[in-house]
Design goal:
By secondary structure, the chain is an all-beta fold. It contains no helices and 37 strands. Strand 26 and strand 27 form a beta hairpin. 45% of the residues are buried.
Amino acid sequence: MTNVTIKDNIMEWPQPGCEGGGGIFCEQSSPQLDNVLIKGNIVNNWGCGAAIFCTYYSNPIINNVQVTRNSSEHSVVYFSQDSAPTFSNSIINENYGGGIYTGWNLNPTLISLIVSDNVGNGISISNNAILENLTVVRNTGKGISCTGGSPSIVSSTITENGNINSGYGIYIENGSNTVINYSNIMLNGYGIFNNDPSVMIDASNCYWGHETGPYHQFWNPGGLGDSVNQFVNPIPFLTEADITAPPIPPFGLDTLAVGCDYASISWQNSPIGDLAGYNVYFDSDSTSFPYADTVDVGIDTTYTLTNLSTGTTYYIAVTCYDNSEDESWYSNEIEVIPGGVGVDDSILHLHKAFYLTQNYPNPFNPETAISFSIPKDSKVEISIYNIKGQKVKTLAK
């Protein structure tokens, strides 16, 4: 299948269960997909694999595929029952129910994938999968969830996954001799959490978002990067981002001001060691991919878009690129609406929903940054509570 679009199909299963295939269903077959768009497919009644469902010795070769805005109860790309795909150079983003699930016996290969902004886990694994050169970012569940097997996670960037209370970049459930090295793991809350005290997980030569390394209660209590629990050994760690992994996307994109025909924006500096510059992407069409207009702004972390149309909604995101011209995935997206004369510029920046970001760094000593966004002009109070539920301090009101 080459140069194909598969979209807006609905699969109705007669009873709850993990069956799927709203877009593609494979059983004892091994198709090859190249330059395929799989979009807007749905599996109802507790199904899974709304985009791709492979079972019983199906070994597809999937390259240059975008899987976006599909919906199922569990993982829109689902491989089970001795299925071992080769999945490369593809994007799995903005799906409901999670990104990729691989399980049962055989060992899939996932290389150079972007798994971003999915509702659910980014990738779920229960076998000896090979994961290399991945970008796993802003998934609402765990970035990578390992429930079995001994997967290998190498040269990958895993950032901003989970929510502010229980973020996990990599979560290891039980009995896994997972190999993790030369990866950038930051802004997840817990970078790695190993739930199995019988196994010590080695995560060597990784970058954790700060030169002091990850926080570990015994081995590195002064670390200001992502946390790891006591059953993870993060030593030795890198003091700057690993440049063999994909560039870390910019984060914290927000507006500084919005006027009649302009919008000023800012973002956090990407910590990649060989940063060469940033690109600002914007468009009035939210369905375009990538956004139609691009501006190279050099190494500045602020920019003003001008000559915008009054009353038009613009969608904006930022990427960074390194000295080899490798470009990161997008930052978080924001929306702005330039206003007319007499409109208060301070209320024209609109986000899609109320949102409180993970504080960074976490843990911290002595300072941390907390960002939030609101969809309309509102009264806001931000307070800190201790573990007993007692208010400690009100930061904003």
